[in-house]
Amino acid sequence: MFGLFRKKRDVPEKTEPKALTAAERRIYIIDFDRTITIMHTGAVAYGSELDATFILKNVKKGFADFVRRVNNSGHVIYIASYSDDANAGLVDGEALSGHDLIKYYMDLIFGPDQIIFTAPQKNSEGETVSPGNIIASNSQDYKQYHLGMILEQEGLNQDSPDDMKRIHLIEDDEDVVRFFMEKGCTIIVPFSASRSADTAATKTLFTSYMPESFMA
Q1: CA pair distance 158, 76, nearest whole angstrom
Q2: Taking the model in full, what pTM does it have?
Q3: Domains annotated on the chain, with CATH
């Protein structure tokens, strides 16, 4: 049933974002490993896996254009990952995981001064002063932890069907997709968690397999 939904479009890097009402604004939640990336990072990267050449080849084509299109349309985008900051300590030598790894990828894709994707910022007392839109935690709760943080930031009510429908999930884990689907969120293939997950995992997700109705 899935084929070429749309032709790839060039998206200008800098355009004035549309002004949307709160009710019109979508919240896109995108998984990291095997959704943004082609190969799973194993939730930790070191050595040659941190080379710019490797990383840029490991990011799916069309991802950057998709992000710019979402931003230019006035919507909101988050990265929600099970990759955890603590994973970096599991290997010898310099390694990145969790927020640092995802931010490293985003800085290579969008430039070192990019502010499209930001990690949480803490003050000297360890208190979070800016939550950012990269959420990385090995919560293993179908990403309820990630969802809760996003709902709080966006001022949404988990018990409101209208609020939950505004959340658009792109995720390759079928169990996570099913959890969000049961919450009333919008998934790539309506009523099919398995096909939504399979679609998110495909290498050509952002160039061939994203339904037009799911785009901003």
Answers
A1: 17
A2: 0.90
A3: 27-214 (3.40.50.1000)
